[in-house]
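Researcher: Sequence recovery benchmark, item below. Answer with residues only.
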């Protein structure tokens, strides 16, 4: 299947119906990659109907933690494995990032689950760090699948969006705390000094139709890391917003060059954040057109991401289902 031309609509996987057999057995819940996986499975089972009974016996484990972290005095209770990663701190010092498997793999028992199931990863930088660290068993790495949160159809319409009121979707507990965990609240105070108004949306669950409706009328979303040590890209927040036509201004992240959709984000630093917001607000129409206009390559990028994820899942299922059949 050929990629759609620049500017074409992207309606996959949004238009794919989930098979009733999957709906009845696996309820939709956090994280948002879960319904995307079910759409992928449904698409493949339609081509391989004999897979359905065996797929229903497979276990799927969703990893949604930061696997890339800095080793600081405040992260001493976390486990770090392997040598330093190649990426250095976005904070401007010379510190290297480390691979953090705690919560992600050890506490949840995912390493054991990988022998019979599939581990679903939400962020491409985590995938890169996992492979680079080389500390997980090969059978675990081979069982990890990157599923991008392509939960909505692309909505490239600019009308009805007000750049004067950027939004955030930060839960209250992420705005307080010690050890650098109040960096978001500090940034909000800086916004006030620069006469930048923001609205923090609460009560809207990730991946819902309610959030989609709000995002389709939102001009600008702001994304800042919660802490000074965990800097994996917040893909579950950012990519769905991009699908809804929102201009996302985000703090820079490690492994940025490995993010397929990096060109459709306005990247900045904590120091320059207020300045960047003002620049985007002043030139909103031009910025929006550069990301979502008729010459945008975003539909082609999304289509390529979808096809690669689908192909990777097909290969992984072919291997896993042989094991299920043998057992």
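Model:
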């Amino acid at each position: 299947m050929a990629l759609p031309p620049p500017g074409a609509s992207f309606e996959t996987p949004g238009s794919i119906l989930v098979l009733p057999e999957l709906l009845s057995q696996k309820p939709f819940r956090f994280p948002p990659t879960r319904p995307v996986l079910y759409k992928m499975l449904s698409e493949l089972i339609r081509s391989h109907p004999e897979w359905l009974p065996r797929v229903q016996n497979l276990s799927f484990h969703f990893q949604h933690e930061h696997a890339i972290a800095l080793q600081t005095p405040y992260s001493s209770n976390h486990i770090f494995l392997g040598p330093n990663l190649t990426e250095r701190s976005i904070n401007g010092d010379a510190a290297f990032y480390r691979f953090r498997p705690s919560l992600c793999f050890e506490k949840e028992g995912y390493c054991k689950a990988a022998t019979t199931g599939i581990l679903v990863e939400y962020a491409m930088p985590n995938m890169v760090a996992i492979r680079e660290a080389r500390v997980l068993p090969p059978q675990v790495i081979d069982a990890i699948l990157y599923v991008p949160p392509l939960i909505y159809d692309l909505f490239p319409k600019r009308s009805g969006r007000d750049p004067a009121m950027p939004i955030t979707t930060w839960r209250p507990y992420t705005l307080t705390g010690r050890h650098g965990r109040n960096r978001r609240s500090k940034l909000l105070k800086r916004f006030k000094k620069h006469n930048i108004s923001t609205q923090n949306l609460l009560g809207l669950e990730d991946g819902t139709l309610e959030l989609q409706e709000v995002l389709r009328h939102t001009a600008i979303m702001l994304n800042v890391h919660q802490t000074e040590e965990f800097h994996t890209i917040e893909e579950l927040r950012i990519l769905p917003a991009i699908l809804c036509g929102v201009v996302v201004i985000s703090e820079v992240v490690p492994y940025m060059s490995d993010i397929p959709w990096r060109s459709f984000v306005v990247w900045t630093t904590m120091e320059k954040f207020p300045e960047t917001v003002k620049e985007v607000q002043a030139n909103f129409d031009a910025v929006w057109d550069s990301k979502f206009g008729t010459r945008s390559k975003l539909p082609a990028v999304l289509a390529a991401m979808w096809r690669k994820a689908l192909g990777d899942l097909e290969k992984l299922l072919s291997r896993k289902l042989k094991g299920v059949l043998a057992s």
